[in-house]
Specification:
This protein is mainly β. The chain starts with 7 loop residues before the first strand and ends with a strand.
């Protein structure tokens, strides 16, 4: 990773039960090398939400940061779309 560049990912909030923490589901798609079929995979990231402003279903952007706890290495950068 180049110095000064922080990775960003976009996903959907799946849990907001914890205090100042959200769980974000980030989905990616790729073509299978042999069968040429589109495959969908996802991964859950715990992100720091200082003001507890995210709700389940929100589409958010998270940014890489220093380790905040054992599992939290991402922070909420912006809420792209609120859930209905």
């Amino acid at each position: 990773m180049a110095q000064g560049r922080k990775l960003t990912k976009r996903g959907v909030v799946t849990s907001d039960i914890m205090d100042k923490t959200i769980v974000v589901k980030v989905e990616r798609q790729f073509k299978h090398a042999l069968y040429k079929k589109i495959v969908r995979r996802h991964k859950n990231f715990k992100a720091h939400d200082e003001n507890n402003e995210c709700k389940i279903g929100d589409i958010v952007e998270i940014q890489e940061s220093r380790p905040i706890s054992k599992d939290k290495k991402w922070v909420l950068s912006q809420i792209i779309e609120r859930s209905k």
